[in-house]
Protein backbone atom coordinates (compact mmCIF):
# COMPACT_ATOMS: atom_id res chain seq x y z
CA UNK A 1 0.00 0.00 0.00
CA UNK A 2 2.83 2.40 0.89
CA UNK A 3 4.58 1.58 -2.39
CA UNK A 4 1.39 2.25 -4.32
CA UNK A 5 0.94 5.60 -2.60
CA UNK A 6 4.53 6.58 -3.39
CA UNK A 7 4.03 5.68 -7.06
CA UNK A 8 0.77 7.63 -7.15
CA UNK A 9 2.35 10.72 -5.63
CA UNK A 10 5.30 10.54 -8.02
CA UNK A 11 3.00 10.28 -11.03
CA UNK A 12 0.82 13.16 -9.82
CA UNK A 13 3.87 15.35 -9.26
CA UNK A 14 5.27 14.67 -12.73
CA UNK A 15 1.96 15.33 -14.46
CA UNK A 16 1.44 18.57 -12.55
CA UNK A 17 4.96 19.65 -13.53
CA UNK A 18 4.24 18.92 -17.21
CA UNK A 19 1.02 20.91 -16.96
CA UNK A 20 2.76 23.83 -15.24
CA UNK A 21 5.29 23.99 -18.10
CA UNK A 22 2.48 24.06 -20.67
CA UNK A 23 0.75 26.86 -18.77
CA UNK A 24 3.97 28.88 -18.56
CA UNK A 25 4.28 28.93 -22.35
CA UNK A 26 0.69 29.83 -23.19
CA UNK A 27 1.14 33.61 -23.63
CA UNK A 28 -2.58 34.22 -23.64
CA UNK A 29 -3.50 31.21 -25.76
CA UNK A 30 -6.26 28.87 -24.59
CA UNK A 31 -4.98 25.60 -23.12
CA UNK A 32 -6.76 22.73 -24.86
CA UNK A 33 -7.13 20.08 -22.20
CA UNK A 34 -7.60 16.36 -22.27
CA UNK A 35 -9.85 14.89 -19.61
CA UNK A 36 -6.75 13.78 -17.67
CA UNK A 37 -5.14 17.24 -17.79
CA UNK A 38 -8.40 18.76 -16.59
CA UNK A 39 -8.34 16.39 -13.63
CA UNK A 40 -4.77 17.41 -12.85
CA UNK A 41 -5.86 21.05 -12.58
CA UNK A 42 -8.86 20.22 -10.40
CA UNK A 43 -7.15 17.74 -8.09
CA UNK A 44 -3.89 19.65 -7.63
CA UNK A 45 -5.57 22.63 -6.01
CA UNK A 46 -2.67 24.82 -7.13
CA UNK A 47 -3.90 26.43 -10.34
CA UNK A 48 -6.25 29.35 -10.88
CA UNK A 49 -7.95 28.39 -14.11
CA UNK A 50 -11.09 29.17 -16.05
CA UNK A 51 -12.08 26.10 -18.07
CA UNK A 52 -14.75 26.03 -20.74
CA UNK A 53 -16.60 22.72 -21.02
CA UNK A 54 -18.16 22.48 -24.47
CA UNK A 55 -19.52 19.87 -26.85
CA UNK A 56 -17.87 19.88 -30.29
CA UNK A 57 -21.01 18.26 -31.72
CA UNK A 58 -22.87 21.53 -31.12
CA UNK A 59 -23.17 23.69 -34.26
CA UNK A 60 -22.28 26.93 -32.39
CA UNK A 61 -18.92 25.64 -31.10
CA UNK A 62 -16.77 27.59 -33.57
CA UNK A 63 -18.03 31.01 -32.44
CA UNK A 64 -17.93 29.95 -28.79
CA UNK A 65 -14.26 28.91 -28.97
CA UNK A 66 -13.38 32.02 -30.98
CA UNK A 67 -14.87 34.31 -28.30
CA UNK A 68 -13.19 32.31 -25.54
CA UNK A 69 -9.83 32.64 -27.30
CA UNK A 70 -10.27 36.41 -27.79
CA UNK A 71 -11.14 36.85 -24.11
CA UNK A 72 -8.04 34.88 -23.12
CA UNK A 73 -5.75 37.05 -25.27
CA UNK A 74 -7.38 40.25 -23.99
CA UNK A 75 -6.91 39.19 -20.36
CA UNK A 76 -3.27 38.29 -20.99
CA UNK A 77 -2.51 41.56 -22.81
CA UNK A 78 -3.96 43.49 -19.86
CA UNK A 79 -1.78 41.67 -17.34
CA UNK A 80 -4.47 39.43 -15.86
CA UNK A 81 -2.77 36.25 -14.64
CA UNK A 82 -5.19 33.40 -15.29
CA UNK A 83 -5.09 30.16 -17.24
CA UNK A 84 -7.90 29.91 -19.77
CA UNK A 85 -8.60 26.33 -20.82
CA UNK A 86 -11.12 24.38 -22.85
CA UNK A 87 -12.27 20.77 -22.66
CA UNK A 88 -14.40 18.98 -25.24
CA UNK A 89 -16.92 16.82 -23.37
CA UNK A 90 -17.57 14.78 -26.50
CA UNK A 91 -14.20 13.11 -25.80
CA UNK A 92 -13.54 13.77 -22.11
CA UNK A 93 -16.53 12.67 -20.08
CA UNK A 94 -15.23 11.69 -16.65
CA UNK A 95 -14.33 15.12 -15.26
CA UNK A 96 -17.53 16.97 -16.11
CA UNK A 97 -19.54 14.13 -14.55
CA UNK A 98 -17.50 14.43 -11.34
CA UNK A 99 -18.22 18.17 -11.35
CA UNK A 100 -21.94 17.42 -11.89
CA UNK A 101 -22.15 19.64 -14.98
CA UNK A 102 -25.33 18.85 -16.89
CA UNK A 103 -25.69 21.73 -19.36
CA UNK A 104 -23.24 22.96 -21.99
CA UNK A 105 -21.49 25.21 -22.61
CA UNK A 106 -20.41 25.71 -19.02
CA UNK A 107 -17.28 27.42 -17.71
CA UNK A 108 -15.82 26.60 -14.31
CA UNK A 109 -13.52 28.98 -12.51
CA UNK A 110 -11.16 26.81 -10.46
CA UNK A 111 -9.23 28.15 -7.50
CA UNK A 112 -7.58 26.17 -4.70
CA UNK A 113 -10.08 23.48 -3.66
CA UNK A 114 -13.14 25.40 -4.88
CA UNK A 115 -14.81 26.22 -8.18
CA UNK A 116 -17.63 28.38 -9.53
CA UNK A 117 -19.92 27.45 -12.42
CA UNK A 118 -20.81 29.95 -15.14
CA UNK A 119 -23.37 29.37 -17.89
CA UNK A 120 -23.00 32.52 -19.95
CA UNK A 121 -23.05 34.83 -21.77
CA UNK A 122 -19.82 33.77 -23.50
CA UNK A 123 -18.94 36.77 -25.64
CA UNK A 124 -15.45 38.25 -25.28
CA UNK A 125 -16.49 41.33 -23.26
CA UNK A 126 -18.67 39.39 -20.80
CA UNK A 127 -15.89 36.91 -20.03
CA UNK A 128 -13.34 39.71 -19.66
CA UNK A 129 -15.58 41.62 -17.24
CA UNK A 130 -16.41 38.47 -15.26
CA UNK A 131 -12.72 37.76 -14.61
CA UNK A 132 -11.43 41.30 -14.06
CA UNK A 133 -14.24 42.25 -11.65
CA UNK A 134 -14.09 38.81 -9.97
CA UNK A 135 -17.84 38.52 -10.45
CA UNK A 136 -17.39 34.74 -10.58
CA UNK A 137 -17.20 34.86 -6.77
CA UNK A 138 -20.93 35.68 -6.76
CA UNK A 139 -21.71 32.52 -8.73
CA UNK A 140 -22.60 29.19 -7.07
CA UNK A 141 -19.48 27.84 -5.31
CA UNK A 142 -18.65 24.16 -4.97
CA UNK A 143 -15.87 22.21 -3.30
CA UNK A 144 -13.49 20.57 -5.75
CA UNK A 145 -13.63 16.77 -5.84
CA UNK A 146 -11.22 15.01 -3.55
CA UNK A 147 -8.04 13.33 -4.68
CA UNK A 148 -7.96 10.59 -7.28
CA UNK A 149 -9.24 7.11 -6.63
CA UNK A 150 -6.87 4.16 -6.95
CA UNK A 151 -8.24 3.35 -10.41
CA UNK A 152 -7.59 6.91 -11.57
CA UNK A 153 -4.00 6.79 -10.33
CA UNK A 154 -3.53 3.66 -12.44
CA UNK A 155 -5.06 5.46 -15.42
CA UNK A 156 -2.54 8.27 -14.86
CA UNK A 157 0.25 5.74 -15.16
CA UNK A 158 -1.26 4.36 -18.36
CA UNK A 159 -1.69 7.91 -19.69
CA UNK A 160 2.04 8.55 -19.18
CA UNK A 161 2.77 5.46 -21.27
CA UNK A 162 0.52 6.33 -24.18
CA UNK A 163 1.95 9.84 -24.22
CA UNK A 164 5.33 8.24 -24.93
CA UNK A 165 6.83 9.11 -21.56
CA UNK A 166 8.01 5.57 -20.85
CA UNK A 167 11.19 6.81 -19.16
CA UNK A 168 9.06 8.31 -16.39
CA UNK A 169 7.01 5.13 -16.05
CA UNK A 170 10.15 2.94 -15.95
CA UNK A 171 11.80 5.18 -13.33
CA UNK A 172 8.70 5.05 -11.14
CA UNK A 173 8.64 1.26 -11.56
CA UNK A 174 12.28 0.97 -10.50
CA UNK A 175 11.65 3.08 -7.40
CA UNK A 176 8.71 0.82 -6.54
CA UNK A 177 10.83 -2.33 -7.00
CA UNK A 178 13.65 -0.97 -4.83
CA UNK A 179 11.23 0.08 -2.13
CA UNK A 180 9.46 -3.30 -2.25
CA UNK A 181 12.83 -5.04 -1.98
CA UNK A 182 13.68 -2.93 1.05
CA UNK A 183 10.41 -3.88 2.77
CA UNK A 184 10.94 -7.60 2.03
CA UNK A 185 14.53 -7.38 3.32
CA UNK A 186 13.36 -5.63 6.51
CA UNK A 187 10.68 -8.29 7.11
CA UNK A 188 13.12 -11.19 6.57
CA UNK A 189 15.72 -9.54 8.83
CA UNK A 190 13.10 -9.09 11.53
CA UNK A 191 12.08 -12.77 11.31
CA UNK A 192 15.72 -13.93 11.51
CA UNK A 193 16.32 -11.77 14.60
CA UNK A 194 13.24 -13.24 16.29
CA UNK A 195 14.43 -16.79 15.56
CA UNK A 196 17.87 -16.04 17.01
CA UNK A 197 16.32 -14.65 20.18
CA UNK A 198 14.23 -17.80 20.60
Automatic annotation (TrEMBL):
Claim: NADP is one of the keywords in the record: no
Signal peptide positions on this chain: 1-20
InterPro entries membership: Thioredoxin-like_sf
Key word DNA repair present: no
Record lineage: Eukaryota, Sar, Alveolata, Ciliophora, Postciliodesmatophora
The protein's name in its UniProt record: Thioredoxin domain-containing protein
Species of origin: Stentor coeruleus
Transmembrane segments: 166-188
Protein keywords: Membrane, Signal, Transmembrane, Transmembrane helix
